[in-house]
# Entry
Amino acid sequence: MATVRKPAAKMDAIAMLIADHKKVQKAFKDFEKLKEGGSKRGRSDIVRQTCADLTVHTMIEEEIFYPAARKAIKDMDVMDEATVEHAGAKELIAQLESMQPGDDLYDAKFTVLGESVNHHIREEQNEMFPKVRKTKLDLNALAEQMAQRKAELESQISAGDGADREKRGMGSARSRASTSPQY
Ligand SMILES: [Fe+2]
Ligand SMILES: [Fe+2]
# Structure
């Protein structure tokens, strides 16, 4: 997939996360538009891609950005709440990944995921990120680490999608269900 991406070194850690936020927010909007008359296939493509994007994004935050932010800012509540919100999103993502596009509640689950992700993004951008910006945290060094990890996770996801299933003897498309827990 040839998405043109700005070199990560040009963005600091917060700019990188905000760019991810914009991408998923646009996807949730596109999905809502497709609910009125759009194809089921189009919707499920958005769901699959957005769940993968969110999985990578939350992992980068939890492995790299949040621990650094926790050390740098004094407000633990904002970090704890963000972590709990991630857990909620992961639960919905796992459910969606085990479902088929025509299933009951498939669209509703994705819409609700979008609502909670939008809420979470607002808290990060309006509360957490401004606090982190005021500290001496080296956001450029952090960005480099995050970009590296992101590339690694993205290649794992695209390579693992088919191969892992084969390895576990679950070749059929129906068994997509079980691909998510490894993340
Ligand atoms: Fe985020
Ligand atoms: Fe987050």
